[in-house]
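Hello,

I think I submitted the NAP job twice by accident. Can you confirm which output corresponds to this input? Input:
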Amino acid sequence: MRRRGTAPAEGLTVVTGASGGIGAALVDSLARPGARLVITARRADALDRVAEQARARGAQVSVRVCDLRDEDAVARLAALILEHDGVPDTVICCAGRSLHRPLARSFARPDDLGRLSAVNLVGTAGLILALLEPMCAAGRGTVVAVTSAAARIPAPGWAAYTASKAGLDSWLRSIRPDAARCGVRIAIAEVPLVATTMSSPLYGAAPRGALSPQQGSAFVLRALRPHRTLVSPLWARIAAPIAQAAPAAGARAAGRIGRLAVRFARRDR
Ligand SMILES: NC(=O)c1ccc[n+]([C@@H]2O[C@H](COP(=O)([O-])OP(=O)(O)OC[C@H]3O[C@@H](n4cnc5c(N)ncnc54)[C@H](OP(=O)(O)O)[C@@H]3O)[C@@H](O)[C@H]2O)c1
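Support: Only one job matched these inputs. Its output is below.
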């Protein structure tokens, strides 16, 4: 029999990138009595603050520090989760890093692609793989990966970022049928502009038209609704096939629209 005042234990949810921005807002939204959360990122102090707030709302929270660029650390993280927290029902991969660098300033920076892919693609996919095996064995679960509304719309200046996000998008779409056969749903959240520390260097601290982290979190959580496989803004769902059908003109147009969007968001005249 349940004790008075306690909710039934829920399935385990893992949130990466939980130390700030959209990830921290996700933890805040998910925190309620009975919720069981594993939150991870590199900064232990920031994770502790997020965990404290979630516990104050009645959630049970494990803090697991991990640098997704470190393959061994990712394997250790998955092992720790499985041993101490259990098999996740939901994995929300929100960790990521971004970069805007035009080609003219990229010639001497071949490392950009590796640095961004290490987090956005390889580290994220590595963690998903390690958790997917027991989830498949359990025959249930949902993986939500946060990519970007720009992931399928290549634009000048965003080469390394969109390549890493498009790589994750393509990898997830490729494993989705096999995962579905063993009962695990894979959903992709193509997030639009959100006012966080990630967007501030280019768009400013309070970009016009951007979602707040809480709105960004609500956007991502739509991917948890039954049968959802993609959550994406309408403009991105229209622009993505156009960019595929007319790659050269599409990238030029995306670059022009992107520059206008930056000026609009920064409130430049
Ligand atoms: N903000 C936007 O406009 C926007 C638009 C489209 C998509 N997105 C996507 O949304 C997600 C969240 O972004 P955000 O805006 O919330 O950015 P943010 O505030 O910079 O948060 C990024 C999160 O990722 C974690 N992270 C970064 N590098 C990591 C690493 N090597 N290992 C483990 N964790 C790492 C950070 O934690 P630590 O620093 O503690 O490690 C932090 O918790 C990202 O995947 C991003 O690409 C954002």
